[in-house]
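Researcher: Here's a chain I'd like modeled. Treat it as a single chain, no partners, no ligands.
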Amino acid sequence: ITGAGRGIGRATAIHLATHGMRLVLGARSEAEIAGVAGEIEAAGGEAVYRAIDVTRRADLDALVGLACERFGRLDVIINNAGIGPLARFDALKVDDWDAMIDVNLKGALYGIAAALPVFKRQDSGHVINVVSTAGLKIVPTMGVYAATKNALRTATEALRQEAGKNLRVTEISPGFIDTTFADA
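Model: Modeled as a single isolated chain. Structure tokens:
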């Protein structure tokens, strides 16, 4: 799970752990993911973690590698990491636009690129991409964020069509959730 230190990623990790899943957690903040892993282990679950930056392809390769080293396989990758510094276009926050493209779109593509060779070797796997309802209902200040989520939605659908019988591909489109995400 990328972006597993807080918000949807953290909640997903804790939920899956209660169902016996063994987890590999990635996020930028090592302290946050160490805390999530510790919480899971204290409750009797199993979790390992690695500090990663999804804008670096090698970090996603390392996260997938950790799953294979620790658990012998990778069953599911959840590309959840995302950012959303919102602003009107005329605010010209071009650096924020670049960051959203790098995290929200390229980060998920890097996760897919890291996982697909493993899934092919195993002849099974599941890619889950967290997109957003923001890509379905376009509103002011959310143009670039929505564009990154729609681009990921398109890539997810194309991957689903290409997947064949042994690769599952799912998109999840949450609406607004009470997390620290909006604090950006």
